[in-house]
Amino acid sequence: MAKRIDVSGLSAFYGSHRAIDDISMTVEPRSVTAFIGPSGCGKSTFLRTLNRMHEVTPGGRVEGKVMLDDENLYGSSVDPVAVRRTVGMVFQRPNPFPTMSIYDNVAAGLRLNGSYKKRDLDGIVEKSLQGANLWNEVKDRLNKPGSGLSGGQQQRLCIARAIAVEPQVLLMDEPCSALDPISTLAIEDLIGDLKERFTIVIVTHNMQQAARVSDRTAFFNLEAVGKPGKLIEIDETERIFSNPSVQATEDYISGRFG
Amino acid sequence: MNTTPTVPAPPAEPAGPPPSAKGTATRPGDKIFLGLSRGSGILLLTLMAAIAAFLTYRAYIAISENEANFLTSFEWNPQGEPVEFGIAILVYGTIVSSIIAMVIAVPIAVGIALFVSHYAPRRLAAPLAYVIDLLAAVPSIVYGLWGALVLVPYLGGMNKWLDQYLGWTYIFDKTGTGPARNLFTVGILLAVMILPVITNVTREVFLQSPKMHEEAALALGATRWEVIRMSVLPFGRSGIISASMLGLGRALGETMAVATVLSPSFLFSGHLLDPGGGTFAQNIAAKFNEADEFGRDALIASGLVLFVMTLLVNGAARLIIARRKEYSGANA
Ligand SMILES: Nc1ncnc2c1ncn2[C@@H]1O[C@H](COP(=O)(O)OP(=O)(O)OP(=O)(O)O)[C@@H](O)[C@H]1O
Ligand SMILES: [Mg+2]
């Protein structure tokens, strides 16, 4: 199910402001790639270009190519809605649909894609909740609203919702930044499990987290406020954290700036 | 039946004043504000009670003299001999015209509000919203004149068509040939009049629908309509209900426009296209000037019923909203 992402020459704009400039990288399938870098360098913006969510923002515009295996996501005949069905996303703040039950939240994406028999749907919902390590906590209250869960549970519910539709790629934008250390650990474990099935990209401000969960790490930076963000380097996580090839990366990781 | 073992009560809170109640000095500003807000609250309640008492008293005078059943009689003859008046026609006319108005106005208003808030490009949305705002400010007599001069002649043809093709439904069977000064026309006119209010309120609610839930839907691969169905409409649900109730309130109480369009009568007809019928507010406006004191008391009695109806409608709306609260997103 997992696919390789191949980005080349990608720039993204908000109106006339160039937020990221000329980014090229490859994201390997069945692996976790972490994005790190100082605030405002365009990590979220770049992540959102990978499932065509960037253009939803008023004034949002993208130049360049994103290949998912051999299909260009920005090809003229590609439907952004179809892209988002194959590239799932988990947001910084847990955002389960407040008007839906836990069950309906997980089933929401499936119901968009077509009609399922009740029994099949039950199976997928259970599998997805188990996949998100949430099943045991919610199996007795599937019909209660998802907004009644704790923050960490809500975030795992959002992960269950995203993986229920079996995407090729899972994008996560600081999925743990609103969570306590225990929930964070739960989600990090989960990411370790999920990478066997999905290609995962995660944005994080937490160096230890990047070091713990990712196979490869990309460091982004911007020259000055108002300048576009750039990819400085991407490499094996071990390499980035022990012996990066660019001085700026080392400075950032060792806390000397940013 | 209590099978759970009794749990020892948690240790009592240490005695003493709660942390914030005492010890903080009240500031003069707070005191003045408290006095002002409490005072105006009491004033408002007293005023309401006085109005209610006045209406109830006058209504009681009228009803105690009435020789017909006030609720079920089709007569309106408070100055006649015998004294007979009842509100059955008015209840029927008010409810029917309001239902027609709501059935037409609510879906259209929600549609326009969705268009303005989620579909229209910004350059179009702002002026459109402004025009709708303006429509809400048009005086009702203007709507009444438009209804009488434009709507009634225009609907004459439509009435014929409805009679011909939908006459078998009974309600669209037209038994006379008079102009379209009927409850159906009134309903349509009321729909036009309450459309701006409902549109404006629902649009405001839709605009506040949280971005993060819309993005959640988008990221799952929802089309724009699916985003609306999954996040905007559920979020706006109680707003739609409140907006509709606001509109209904206006429709129930609308006076001048209805009085201008309808040719009132106290003959009952279940056919919507037959001229005649009446509504509470229209009846009061039409009869108040020529009524003597007792006649006015009778009209006040009918006004009291309208008041109660409006209260019930509002109460029902609140119930519906409260029942959905768990899912409203307020605790998200
Ligand atoms: N909706 C928007 N409209 C205009 N400019 C935006 C918008 N969102 C982000 N930007 C700009 O784009 C640049 C990159 O922002 P982005 O949110 O991608 O940074 P980030 O690396 O994710 O930061 P953080 O680590 O704080 O989340 C910033 O200069 C920001 O001001
Ligand atoms: Mg960000």
From TrEMBL, chain A:
InterPro entries: AAA+_ATPase, ABC_transporter-like_ATP-bd, ABC_transporter-like_CS, P-loop_NTPase, PstB-like. It holds the Pfam family ABC_tran. SUPFAM superfamilies: P-loop containing nucleoside triphosphate hydrolases. It comes from the Bacteria. GO terms for molecular function: ATP binding. Residues 5-247 form the ABC transporter domain. Keywords: ATP-binding, Nucleotide-binding, Translocase, Transport. This is Phosphate ABC transporter ATP-binding protein. It comes from Streptomyces lycii. The lineage of its organism: Bacteria, Bacillati, Actinomycetota, Actinomycetes, Kitasatosporales.
TrEMBL record, chain B:
Its main location: membrane. The keyword Transmembrane helix applies. Keywords: Cell membrane, Membrane, Phosphate transport, Transmembrane, Transmembrane helix, Transport. The chain crosses the membrane at residues 41-63, 83-116, 128-155, 183-202, 251-273, 298-321. The keyword Transport applies. It is found in: Cell membrane. Pfam families: BPD_transp_1. Residues 91-317 form the ABC transmembrane type-1 domain. It is a multi-pass membrane protein. Residues 7-20 have a biased composition (Pro residues). Residues 1-26 are annotated as: Disordered. PANTHER family: PHOSPHATE TRANSPORT SYSTEM PERMEASE PROTEIN PST (PTHR30425), PHOSPHATE TRANSPORT SYSTEM PERMEASE PROTEIN PSTC (PTHR30425:SF1). Belongs to the binding-protein-dependent transport system permease family. CysTW subfamily. Part of the binding-protein-dependent transport system for phosphate; probably responsible for the translocation of the substrate across the membrane. This is Phosphate transport system permease protein. It comes from Streptomyces lycii.
